[in-house]
Amino acid sequence: MTESIDDTDSAAPADLPEAPIAFASVASIYRYPIKGLSPERLDVADLVAGGYFPGDRLYAIENGPSGFVAEAPAFQPKIKFLMLMRNERLAALEARYDDAATTLVIHHEGAEVARGDLSTEEGRAAIELFFQRYARYELRGAPKLLAAPEGFRFVDTTEGYISLINLASCQALGEMTGKPVDPLRFRANLYLAGMEPWEEFDLVGHTIEIGEQVKLKVTESIVRCAATNVDPVTAMRDLDIPGTLMRRLGHNHCGIFAEVLSGGSIAEGDAVRLRL
After folding, report:
1. Rounded distance, CA 19 to CA 266, Å?
2. Interval 100-110: pLDDT, tens
3. 261 φ, ψ to 5°?
4. Could you read off the pLDDT of 153-206 as tens digits, one per residue?
């Protein structure tokens, strides 16, 4: 006699927990301590729930009075600061910020041109004096180095917590322009490998997991401005990235913003997963 099988004794596929789907990996990690100045590559970054990317956009160089008040910080449009969209010569500078010493060192054409401890009035004045000379034809007033108060960053939008770029989209954009597009033109925090071109837009509204602990909620795609037209190596304004995107795709978006839902450490090579 054949025994009957009770279907209730085995879990149906719909009852099993959905495993996250690995679809990409972290190719590189960057921070930008000084708004508009050069990136710094990181091996590891420690993210905090609800926080900005660590060490990112801690300072900005005010291009004449901006109305920024440290005691009541509020978002200011980037036009009020020295920035690549208008001041492409910034890309010719190599800046390094030492967190422990709160010291910024700037090199130009291989030589040190400025150094200052940004926690001191004298150190900030040394950096301001350099930019007063270096950017003198582009200034609307005396440059002033501003420090972000706790819980605030000099990001370009109120949604700009963590920014991510799909390397495949950069490659596709290079095919459109006929010239390789350096991903650093987009000044993102995380650069992702293993995706299809423009796949990042499908992530908006979803939660992704990176490494063992980090969860990010993808909030929106990033609108691109003329800053991406500047080659980060040569400091030449040699491409029309927003125009190319608009002509070829009907929009000028590239990359995505995300908020940190769960903090933890991330590192180069970490898998990026999507939980359905």
Report:
1. 20
2. 999 999 999 99
3. -85, -45
4. 999 887 678 999 999 999 999 999 999 999 999 999 999 999 999 999 999 999
